[in-house]
Design goal:
By secondary structure, the chain is an alpha/beta fold. The protein has one domain: Vaccinia Virus protein VP39 (Rossmann fold, 3-Layer(aba) Sandwich), CATH 3.40.50.150. 43% of the residues lie in helices and 15% in strands. It contains seven helices and six strands. A six-stranded mixed beta sheet has the order 1-6-5-2-3-4, with helices on both faces.
Length: 201
């Protein structure tokens, strides 16, 4: 399974912003075309049922050890960077980040069940981790000041789990919202997916 990692500063240029919007739209189409049905079901109902049935942590794609260099790049090597982890699920990534000095990590997921489970799991040992139930396509919380946004396979779930031809629109909305806010403030964003978007300049 190929893993594509995208990380970098986002420009404040209006022209580049227009190009970015076109690129995001193309990426959304590619993600939908390439994704195979993976049994992700019907949105939040599927995920809550999954986490109730199996509350044990599950790691999509790679672990922190394998992603550490990318995370360092995305945070400009700053352990004090404020990080938004989108679609956290019950990944151990935020726990490992915390244990390696990243204390300011905010985790969001659409599934209330996993947010409650992870908040309780880390309440004593990692009290500074923050957990919020939130739809990644409606991220009002992102108006707060985050230095870095991390997405580990959320794009894949949108591509595989959104019924019919609506997937490109959902992905496009998510990418433009996340990338647009980061771009305005000159921060960085890292996406880790199982599909390969077109090369960009």
């Amino acid at each position: 399974m190929a893993i594509n990692a995208i990380s970098g500063p986002l420009s404040n240029s209006q022209d580049k912003g227009s190009a970015k919007r076109k690129e995001v739209s193309e990426v959304a189409e590619e993600a939908t075309e390439d994704a195979q049905a993976a049994g992700y079901g019907d949105g939040v109902e599927y995920w809550n049922k999954r986490y109730r049935g199996d509350p044990n942590p599950f790691e999509w794609l790679e672990s922190f050890a394998e992603l550490e260099s990318l995370i360092k790049e995305a945070t400009s090597g700053r352990a004090d960077a404020s990080v938004l982890h989108v679609g956290c699920g019950n990944s151990l990534l935020p726990e490992a980040m915390y244990d390696h000095g990243y204390k300011d990590v905010t985790n969001i997921d659409v599934a209330e069940v996993c947010i409650q489970q992870m908040a309780e799991r880390n309440r004593t040992m990692r009290p500074e981790l923050k957990w919020f139930e939130m739809d990644a396509t409606e991220m009002g919380l992102i108006e707060s000041s985050f230095d870095t946004v991390i997405d580990k396979s959320v794009l894949d779930t949108f591509a595989c789990g959104t019924p019919g031809d609506n997937a490109p629109n959902v992905i496009n909305k998510y990418l433009l919202e996340a990338m647009g806010d980061v771009k305005r403030k000159g921060r960085r964003i890292a996406y880790m997916t199982t599909w390969l978007p077109a090369e960009s300049d």
